[in-house]
Amino acid sequence: FYLTVGDTLQLTCFIYPTNSTDDEITWTSSDTDVASVENGLLIVHGTGTTVITATLEGGLTDSLILTIMN
User: Fold this and answer.
1) How does pLDDT run across 51-69, given as a tens digit for each residue?
2) What distances in angstroms separate CA 15 from CA 7, 8, 11, 44, 51, one per listed residue?
3) pTM
4) H or E segment at 21?
5) H-helix or E-strand containing 33?
């Protein structure tokens, strides 16, 4: 799918096992000029590439590379 400047997208992170007590997710972006994440809501600010990372309290992480083009 395609995202452009100004778009938003709700991100979801599935935690297994489902009864895990480590369920606090911190979202970060490596380049907030491209996109930021607030409580899982991705907000596109400009063109370029950024890495979006979800981190659990226990340190487990998962990331995606997001590229926004003209």
Assistant:
1) 999 999 888 899 999 999 9
2) 26, 23, 13, 25, 20
3) 0.88
4) none
5) none
